[in-house]
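Deviations from the work plan: none for this task. Representative record:
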Amino acid sequence: MTALAESPELALVDLLDRLLAGGVVLTGDITISLADVDLVHVSLRALISSVHTLVREAGDA
Amino acid sequence: MLTYLYAIGRVPLEPPDRPGVDAEPPRVIVEDGFAAVVGSVAPARFDEAALAHDLEDLRRVEELARAHHRLVAALPGDGPVAPVRLATIYRDDDGVRRLLRERATELGALLDRLGTCREWGVKMWSPPRPAADAQPVPADAERPGTSYLMRRRAARDADAHRRAQGTELAEHVHRTLSRLAVAARRLAPQDAVLSGRTEEMLLNTTYLVRREDEAAFTAAVAGAGASGAEIVRTGPWPPFSFATVDDP
């Protein structure tokens, strides 16, 4: 689909802008009924904050 | 095995020749005219506990994000494809089939809306602050305190002016590009640590653009770059930022 898909310069920050905040969300953080039945649910909000924390820690080290 | 969902399109849709997030070969689940691109992934690495642990590790997140993106980006572009959010995992294929049946209306509407449009990102930063003020206030030898304050004020005014000009230019660029796009979205300003840029980010926007408008769109971005501010275009991306359905 995209010409730049294999580009090594694809910056992680641009990728995360889209991969963590975009894409069809098939269950929300609150909609747990579906998740309980058949969806493994990962809270992406928690993920994003952990990414920031990790990067800061790496920067401090 | 668990079923990792990458993207949803319409039949016929061939799985791409790229390994997935668990190095697995992707396959397609067909239901009701929809085609879901999935992979079988190991519960040891992709159940809730394993993911919760792995997603704390930025390198692991990067691996997953790159593999997920690579696979979705390799899907044929001749029909609409809706990318699914990273780490959307079902217990089995039946869960995906049920999704395709139960959400058929919204998914159909989403695919119609996306068409074969692609996503293009635009980032813009304010130009670096000039070394000297544009209009320095001459020092007054008789009143050094006053001239110091005047220089301070002139520098502050110049900063504010530059910032206002940058914002105005960014809004102008965004309006111009939005007119060439089917849809536009503002993304959060990028974290300076992740982006490695310390200048003020004036724009972090992304646009859903029809194939036939891509040439005009890229020309408009290039034109905006001639204005002095630094502008960077990324893409084409699969339409991640525009693949949204309302929760049931």
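Chain A has three helices and one strand.
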